[in-house]
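Changelog entry: the ABC transporter ATP-binding protein record was regenerated in this release. Current contents:
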Amino acid sequence: MLQLQHVSKRYKNQTILEEINVTIQKGEIVSLLGPSGSGKTTILNMILGLTDVSSGQIFFDGEDVTHTPMKKRGFNIVFQDYALFPHLNAYDNIVYGLKNKKDKISKEEIQRYIEFLDLTPHLKKKVHELSGGQKQRVSIARTLIMQPKILLMDEPLSALDGVMKESIKERIQQIAKEFNLTTIIVTHDPEEALTMSDQVIIVNDGKIAQYGTPEDIIQRPSNPFVKDFILKQLHVKRQNIYRLFGEAYV
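Regenerated structure tokens:
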């Protein structure tokens, strides 16, 4: 279980985040959703350990990790732009981080992740030979074989569209279930958050505007900002939300 208790972030005289209180259960998919500049990426970076907390505490499985260095937290991130090495093939990208991993992982375990993500036919391809969806799956595989305690994802679908996007959404859901892996995703897209998450944290102006299930947010928005933000952002995607949640937003 991951807990953020009274977490705030300030830069000089500017408050970026204020009194963030969140509890995330093991194996949940939780999306951090909000407009640009709302503070959602800062929350992700504080969980990862990339950004220091100004006040408050972060606990993981009851242990205070607020000041634990990023490398010792055991969390890992999938970046928006894949961050793959262009001079390496897909397989070498996947196993690149293992040379710095203290706990050994067997070839059978590596193969399990590769097969789970349907990457076996693509292992010898260089990065430029991979499709966007294949690049994202390689990036996810590279993260999974490090066996993170929490999987963090920064806009993992933003560079994808159509069938590729739906495929990766399904993979993320399968990963959380198959490996009982807590997964936290930053997104600006309500449709992504509402259709693939167990819980959604809506962030606005450095505060949590609402934290609940997709059904709660759709059917019982806690304030005008939440409803307005969801409605404005959905546009043509509203049909997908209607299919899942009924007439609340029609």
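The radius of gyration is 18 Å.
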